[in-house]
Amino acid sequence: MNQIPLNSTDIAEERFLAELDRLHPDSPDILARLALARLALGRGDEAFRSAERAVAVAPGHGGARTTLGQVLISQRKVDEARAAFEEAVRLEPTDARAWLGLGECLASLTGGQAAAVDALRRAVSLAPRDSRAPTLLGAVLMSLGRHEDAIQAYRAAIMVCANPNPADLLNNLGVALERLERRDEAVAVLRAAALVRPDSIAIQDNLGNSLLATGNAPGAEACHRRALALGAKGAETWSNLANSLHRQGRLDEADAAYRRAIQMAPQAPKFHTNLALNLLLSGRFAEGWREYEWRWRDHPNFPPHLREFPWDGGPLPPDMPHGGTLLLQAEQGYGDTIQFVRFAPLLKQRGVTRVVLACQPELVRLVGSAPGLDQTIPETGPLPPFDRAVTLLSLAGVFKAGDEPVPAQMPYISVPEGAGVDLPEAEGRLKVGLAWAGRPTHGDDWNRSIPARLLAPLLDVPDVAFYSLQRGAVAERLGRPPAGRLLDAADLCADFADSAAVVAAMDLIISVDTAVVHVAGALGKPVWLLLPPVPDFRWLMRGETSAWYPSLRLLRRGFDTGWEPVIAQAETWLRRAVTDRAPSSA
Q: How far apart are CA 121 and CA 144, in angstroms?
């Protein structure tokens, strides 16, 4: 724990106070000041004896108790320090130093953060010109996930800080802004911090991460290389550098940097998982799938039954306790579930007697139609008896996807009976479904989603009825195309079964990388997939087709261009499709 910053720390003052103590041995004020002076000089045992004497000669002196608490904090005796500060605030409830010390103690105790916030707020109210309390308050609020409140605390600390350019506070503020995905603000604040402290490894790393989140991968790379040049020793910096190289499509360089991070921290799951994604995007499937198994190592949300009853890829005969039942556990996004459920039929070939899929409730009706499944249940409900369990994406490694042909017999899902909605009439026009935005919480959403206004050239193509496949707030986040140009379809759907019915009614889907693509691909519908320069691992770095879904055509954005050329290419193809569809004149 960090000692609270103190004043009056030079040797001369200590000697002066020691002489005063000799002349006035029963003065709690002199003893308390002497304790602080000795503490600042690193003479902790003498400081403790002076503080203890101050309390002994004046048990009702709150300032003496506060000083004793500060000395005890420096000696890492948190429980004793807490008791001293609690007595201090009882004796002198308007002493900001006592509330600050109490807040520091509480913040270090398991479960004490909420009480620490209250204590530190008292300290701030009693000493509004002291930056120490709001600084610590910001850190405690960050630990509680209260990032907006932390931002307010850090801003308050910056306003009253004696240093007009407090780099550490700016760094903390930048991190809090990044946590709330206020990335442009985070970059601006962290740039200011870096100007003040260009030699700070932490600031360079944090600035690099924020730059990458805004799409500035070259800037991120420069920051992380600067951190390494400054002497960064941690694996995290190498991993951050690798992320910036990966985002620039420099996969071989990223591979080397990820491996350097793993060499330094071989048991860190995040580094192995990022290496896996880099390998898979590179088409190095065997090692990629092996490394991808690290994704759940030590993960707090990993279902315990998957650790207790892991499937080793072998047969599960019917004479097992639960009839040779394998539980498939869905993971990650809706699209992942749809994509990887294709492996279910192969399980029976491995000698698995019965297959149960636990998936997102919104998908139960739809993926329940996939072959190879004996039962499909919502993952939010109780699980049926089973003998072994495996996560759905692990099946890709079991069946060596990529090195062996991917199961691609289409369609492998079907629209359930009774699913569907009443769509606005197309009146004989080509029916095209559009999706331009993915899930905003996806870490790469800034890279894959498209502002709706950029779709205008597509919407100008005649003889096409365009249907929005975007739902609610997701659509609003990146805007909507001009009114009257798009027929709403998605908001009519109750679940993915209804969405599949809508997709099945389309002649064509044009979409960014989102779950709609997987629904359409699994149904065997034509899809034009609009991809960023460095896409998700499943689409690889090159090619116009995908082994996962034969009906897809991949339109890839270049590194040095916006989405406009991709939209223009789609417009050209769409005009051609309308022309080819029109009946020839007699």
A: 15
What CATH number matches the domain at 430-581, 3.40.50.2000, 3.40.190.150, 3.40.50.150, 1.10.357.10? Answer: 3.40.50.2000
Two domains, one topology: 304-398 and 430-581: yes
What is the assigned CATH class of domain 304-398? Answer: alpha beta
The pair phi, psi for residue 536, each rounded to 5°, is -65, 155
pLDDT in tens, 34-76: 666 666 667 667 777 777 787 777 787 778 888 888 888 888 8
**Structural tokens at position 86:** 């609690």
Give the whole-angstrom CA distance, residue 51 versus residue 46: 9
Residue 83: exposure state from Cβ atoms within 10 A (0-12, 13-18, ≥19) = middle
| Global pTM value | 0.87
* Residue given tokens 């499909």 in the structure block: 376
Contact in structure between 117 and 137 (CB atoms under 8 Å): yes
Cis upstream peptide for 411 (omega within 30°): yes
Distances (CA, A) of 523 to 33, 248, 369, 504, 506: 78, 33, 11, 7, 11
Residue-level length of the chain: 586
Task: Check residue 6 and give its pLDDT.
Answer: 39
**Nearest 5 degrees, angle CA 413-CA 348-CA 404?**
75
The pLDDT score that the predictor gives to residue 20 is: 47
Q: Tens digit of pLDDT for each residue in 521-549?
A: 999 999 999 999 999 999 999 999 999 99
* pLDDT for 185: 97
DSSP designation for 562: -
Query: Coil, strand, or helix at residue 204?
Result: helix
Domain range summary for the chain, segments of one domain joined by +? 304-398, 430-581
- The pLDDT, as a whole number, for residue 584 is 52
Q: Say what the pLDDT of residue 70 is.
A: 83
Measured between alpha carbons, how far is 216 from 168 in angstroms, rounded to an integer? 23
Residues of the chain with pLDDT under 70: 1-27, 30, 34-41, 43-44, 440-443, 472-484, 583-586
3-class secondary structure, 529: strand
Place of tokens 């407090």: 166
Determine the residue type at 507: D
> Which three-class secondary structure state does DSSP give residue 510?
strand
Compute and round to an integer the Cα radius of gyration of the chain: 31
